Amino acid sequence: MSGSDPAATARPVEGEDSGHGRPGSLSICIATRNRCDELARTLRELARLSPPPDEVLVVADGCTDGTVEMLRRAHPEVRLLVQEPARGSIPSRNAMAQATRCEIFLSLDDDSYPIEPDFLARVREDFARRPRLAVLSFPQRSEEFPDSLRATDFGPPRFPGSFANSGAAIRRAVFLELGGYPEQFGHMYEEPDFALRCVAAGWEVWQDPTRTVRHHFTGTQRSELRNHHRHARNELWSVLLRCPAPQVFGVALYRLARQWGYAWSRSPGWALREPQWWLAAACGLGRCLAERRPLPWRRYLAWMRLVGAPLVSEAEWRENFGVAPR
Question: Quick one: DSSP state of residue 266?
């Protein structure tokens, strides 16, 4: 997957199995690093779901805070993968996608969980009803966006250009077929990059506003500036990996300028630190060029528009993405 086997460095601790699962089977997959209390709360909330998932799979990514011990003691039913040393959230999610026994996996953070008790039953129904559905995403209620905690209307169902791994159901076969997430990203921007590859291949990314995910905003392991640098670097790498020539040069310059503008809007200090991620991006240039697989420009451009303006019409979506290119 993306040039390597992410499961190769994840040591299985409990319940290893190589089965691919029956149609409609569903796994909940959670990546965690040193947020034991948040993970314990999430697992308590998952126990409310009816029907329950077919399995819960957790990757403990370089945890040193007692997470592994807590899981073994209090949640022996959880399938556990241990990564030592830490490899990042993206390799963790790739490892779980390869290890799960199920047809569908619900990707969560260690501080996010579905709100509605029948959430999983309706996810299964959607994937059975929509054979071209690759990713099903949901609105999130989070302290990071206070209005979301009080919202009663999240708008119409739509085809977005991205999704959030803290609350998205993914068809495993499509995930593996398209190569999973780029391992070199480490953390951040894997979702829009994967959504781009999905829609370019004629697979649907769909958001259902009638179900919601509670996402607690946890400060542990978060740095806004560091996340900006990772996001900007990975966005540029995605352009180099997917955007065709000659358009790749203009799109790359646009991304650089847009990220610098965002940094300047935060503070002059942020803007002065932009060369840090430029250097990090340059260090991965060779790998991007070696793994470069450009997509058709018509679909790449349609996806860029989709990010800014999600489609609500299935007819419009089919016109742009409904027939997969050869």
Answer: H
